[in-house]
Amino acid sequence: EKPAKEDMAAIIRHVKAWIRDERAWAAAKAACPQGVLNAIDLVGAKLDKEEGEEVAKAAYRLHQSLMSELMVGNRWPLGGDWPILTGGLEYAPRLLGLSQRHACHGASLRIFMYNVERFAHMTHPVLTCSQ
Q1: Mean pLDDT for each consecutive 10-residue tract of the chain (131 residues)?
Q2: Residue 2: which of 49, 52, 45 has the closest Cα?
Q3: CA separation for the pair 36, 59 (Å, rounded)
Q4: What is the dihedral of CA 1, 51, 64, 99, to 10 degrees?
Q5: Contact status, residue 54 vs residue 16, Cβ threshold 8 Å
Q6: What is the pTM of this model?
Q7: Which of 20, 29, 97, 112 is deepest in the core (most CB within 10 A)?
């Protein structure tokens, strides 16, 4: 279920604070790693749409850094009562250019992108247009 408008605004404020303030990020991820991962996943598309692609990228960089920390420290998957959204949203960092290119598992599938000005309005925000 989608969070209420006021709750979504609060989550966005928190994520933007984590982007700006390393101490706030460190405290939040230590207190509830599941919560911060889910918060970023919940608001990623909205950040992209309302704040811009660079803000969305900054949020997903935090997300990726925490995921790396958890995997290296053998603390993944996380336990607890919170279901993690990350598995269903793994496309987001890829679309934002934060992941390695994918080879489509050796398939001959190719997608061609053309820069046609009259369609430019259809390609941004990146995460919203991909859904």
Answers
A1: 89 97 96 91 90 93 90 69 63 76 64 65 63 51
A2: 45
A3: 10
A4: 110
A5: no
A6: 0.72
A7: 29
